[in-house]
UniProtKB/TrEMBL annotation:
Segments passing through the bilayer: none
Lineage per the UniProt record: Eukaryota, Metazoa, Chordata, Craniata, Vertebrata
Protein name: Inositol 1,4,5-trisphosphate receptor-interacting protein
Signal peptide coordinates: 1-20
Function: Enhances Ca(2+)-mediated inhibition of inositol 1,4,5-triphosphate receptor (ITPR) Ca(2+) release.
Family assignment from sequence similarity: Belongs to the ITPRIP family.
Organism per entry: Onychorhynchus coronatus (Royal flycatcher)
Keyword Glycoprotein: yes
Keyword Transferase assigned: no
GO CC terms, sorted: nuclear outer membrane; plasma membrane
Domain of life, source organism: Eukaryota
Pfam families cross-referenced by the UniProt entry: Mab-21_C
Length: 549
C-alpha cells in the first residue's frame, strides 16, 4: 500500500514540474529556434539535393563513358573478328585459286598430248573457221599431185649432191687444220625438212650439222637449263659449254667453287692446271677470260677453216662457193657457170653427252624468236630425234599415209599467205611440232590417205587452239611418252614442258600479226589451192589478193 501511494505521488509531482505554465520564459523561445532549425534544415536539404544531383550527373557521365568504352571495345572486337574472318576468306580464296591454277597447269601439261582419240574431240571450231570453205578430197588430192609432188622430185638428187660435196669439203678442212691445236671435225648429218621429205617452197636448202670436239687433252662439259641450276625464263632451251682438261673433275672438287685462302693449296689441282692463260682459252674458242665456248668465235674459226678447205679443192669443181648470208654464218651457196645455184647450211654443233641432242652455234631466227642471252649460250636442237621419230612412226602407218602431205599443204599455204601479207611469228618448225603432237595422239589408221581432209582440218584446229592459248609445247621436252626405241635422254623427258609460243605473251604486236595472218590464210585457203588445180580468171585471182592485202 505505501508503495502504491508513493508511485501516485511521484507521478503527480512529475506532471506538475513538466507543465509548460511553470516555465513561461524558457518555452517562449521555442518558436524562434524552430524556424531557424527549419531554415537550416531546408538549406541542408537543398545542399544535399544539389550534391545528389551532382553525384547523379557524375554517375551518369561515368555510365556514358563506360558505355562508350564498351561500345568502342565491341566495335574493335567486331572489326578484329571481321578482319580475321576476311583474312581467312582471302587466304582461303587464294589457296583455292592457286590449287585451281596448279590443277589447270598440271592438267594441261599432263594431257598436252592427249588431244586425239575421237574426231569429236577436235570438232569444236573457233570463230576463225566460220564461213571457211574447206577444199574437198578431190581438190586436195589434185592440188597435192600437181603442186607438191611436181616440185619436190629433184630433192633426192640435190641431197645426194650436197652431201657428197660437204663430205669432200670437210675432209679438206681436216687436212688444213692443226690436229694438235684446232677443233676436231666429225662427219656431217642432214636434218630438217629436206631430209624429212616435206620441204615444198623454193629455194630448197639442205641443213647439215657438223659435230666438233676440242683437241686433246681438253673436253667439253655441257650444262643445260634443266640440269638442276635455276635459269631465267628467257634462257630455257639453252645451255653452256665449258672447256676443261680431260683429267679435271669440275664437279668433284670444291676448289673450283670455293675461294681458297692465299695460304691454301688444292692437292688435286695444281696452280698450273687451275689458272690457264687467257690466250690459251681464246685459242680454244672461249669467251674472253672465261672457260665457256663462244659461239661467235666458233663460227669465225669455222668460216676461216671452210675458206681454206675450199681453196685447196676448188680446182676439182666447175663452180664457185661463197657464204650467202651475213646473219647466218654457216649459209653457203654453190654457183654454177650456167647461173643456177644451190644453197645449203653447214653449221658446227657440240654433242650433248652421248646422245643425239646437239648444241647448235647459230639457229635460223624468226621474228618471234628472242635474242640470244649471250654468245656463250647455245641453243639445243633435237632435229636428229625428230627425224628418227617421224621415220619410226611412219613404219606403223598405212601405206601412203597423209601425215607428210598435211604438213606440206599447211607449209605451202602459210608460206603463200606470208608472201602476200608479210611474215608472221609462225615458222615451219611450229607447223612440224603440230604434226608431231597429232602423230602421237591419233591412232595409226587415222592417217590413211583418204583421210587427208580430216587430218588437215585437225592440224588447223589444233594450231588455232594453240594460238588462242599462246601455248605450243615442244614435242620432246617434258614429254614422258617418247618411244623407248629412240633412247631419248631422260633428263629432257622429266623437264618442264617448253612453251614455243611464250614470246607471244611478251610481243603482242607479233602475236596480233600472226593471228591476222592465220585468219587470212583460212579465208584464202580455197582460192590459194584452186589457183594451182583449176583455172581461175585472172581478175578473180587479183581480187582475192587485193582483199588479202
Amino acid at each position: 500500500m505505501p508503495v502504491g501511494i508513493f508511485r501516485v505521488c511521484l507521478l503527480v509531482i512529475t506532471a506538475i514540474v513538466n507543465h509548460p505554465l511553470f516555465f513561461p520564459k524558457e518555452n517562449g523561445t521555442v518558436p524562434e529556434n524552430t524556424e531557424e532549425i527549419i531554415q537550416k534544415m531546408k538549406e541542408r536539404e537543398e545542399s544535399l539535393r544539389m550534391e545528389q544531383l551532382r553525384l547523379e550527373q557524375e554517375i551518369a557521365d561515368q555510365e556514358a563513358t563506360q558505355k562508350a568504352l564498351e561500345k568502342a571495345a565491341l566495335v574493335v572486337e567486331e572489326t578484329k573478328e571481321e578482319k580475321v574472318r576476311w583474312d581467312m576468306w582471302t587466304a582461303l580464296s587464294m589457296v583455292i585459286f592457286l590449287l585451281i591454277e596448279l590443277w589447270r597447269q598440271d592438267f594441261q601439261e599432263g594431257n598436252w598430248q592427249d588431244i586425239g582419240g575421237e574426231e569429236d574431240d577436235m570438232a569444236v571450231l573457233g570463230k576463225a573457221f566460220k564461213g571457211v570453205a574447206f577444199p574437198n578430197k578431190a581438190v586436195l588430192a589434185s592440188f597435192y599431185e600437181k603442186r607438191i609432188l611436181g616440185t619436190t622430185g629433184d630433192m633426192a638428187r640435190m641431197r645426194e649432191m650436197v652431201e657428197g660435196f660437204a663430205d669432200d669439203l670437210l675432209e679438206a678442212l681436216r687436212s688444213v687444220c692443226n690436229r694438235d691445236a684446232d677443233m676436231e671435225v666429225e662427219d656431217c648429218m642432214g636434218v630438217g625438212s629436206m631430209y624429212e621429205n616435206w620441204r615444198v617452197r623454193k629455194p630448197f636448202v639442205c641443213d647439215l650439222i657438223v659435230p666438233f670436239a676440242p683437241p686433246e687433252p681438253y673436253c667439253f662439259r655441257c650444262q643445260t637449263w634443266c640440269s638442276g641450276d635455276s635459269f631465267p625464263p628467257d634462257e630455257q632451251g639453252y645451255g653452256t659449254i665449258k672447256v676443261c682438261r680431260a683429267d679435271e673433275d669440275v664437279t668433284g672438287c670444291i676448289c673450283d667453287k670455293t675461294k681458297l685462302g692465299e695460304d691454301m693449296l688444292c692437292l688435286l689441282h695444281s696452280q698450273v692446271n687451275t689458272t690457264r692463260p687467257s690466250s690459251e682459252m681464246e685459242d680454244l674458242l672461249c669467251f674472253k677470260n672465261t672457260q665457256y665456248l663462244d659461239a661467235d668465235q666458233v663460227m669465225k674459226w669455222f668460216q676461216i677453216a671452210v675458206t681454206k678447205a675450199w681453196n685447196r679443192i676448188s680446182h676439182k669443181y666447175e663452180f664457185d662457193l661463197s657464204f650467202s648470208l651475213l646473219d647466218s654464218p654457216g649459209a653457203l651457196k654453190i654457183k654454177f657457170r650456167s647461173g643456177k645455184s644451190i644453197a645449203f647450211n653447214l653449221t658446227p654443233v657440240v654433242q650433248y653427252e652421248n646422245s643425239d641432242v646437239y648444241f647448235i652455234s647459230h639457229f635460223p631466227r624468226s621474228s618471234l624468236a628472242a635474242d640470244v642471252p649471250s654468245s656463250t649460250h647455245w641453243f639445243l636442237t633435237f632435229a636428229v630425234y625428230e627425224r628418227r621419230f617421224i621415220h619410226l612412226v611412219s613404219k606403223t602407218l598405212p601405206a601412203n599415209a597423209c601425215h607428210v602431205s598435211c604438213l606440206q599443204i599447211l607449209s605451202f599455204l602459210h608460206g603463200k599467205q606470208c608472201s602476200l601479207t608479210g611474215p608472221s611469228g609462225l615458222t615451219n618448225y611450229h607447223l612440224k611440232t603440230v604434226m608431231l603432237h597429232l602423230l602421237q595422239a591419233r591412232p595409226s589408221q587415222d592417217w590413211a590417205p583418204e583421210k587427208l581432209e580430216a587430218r588437215l582440218q585437225d592440224m588447223l584446229k589444233f594450231l588455232e587452239k594453240c594460238l588462242h592459248e599462246k601455248k605450243l609445247y615442244h614435242f620432246f621436252i617434258g614429254n614422258g611418252k617418247v618411244p623407248a626405241e629412240l633412247s631419248f635422254p631422260i633428263i629432257f623427258q622429266r623437264a618442264e614442258p617448253l612453251n614455243l609460243f611464250r614470246p607471244f605473251v611478251l610481243r603482242r604486236d607479233i602475236y596480233r600479226k600472226t593471228v591476222d595472218t592465220f585468219h587470212e590464210m583460212l579465208r584464202n585457203m580455197s582460192a590459194l589451192i584452186n589457183e594451182y588445180t583449176v583455172h581461175i580468171p585472172l581478175a578473180h585471182t587479183n581480187g582475192i589478193r587485193k582483199e588479202s592485202l
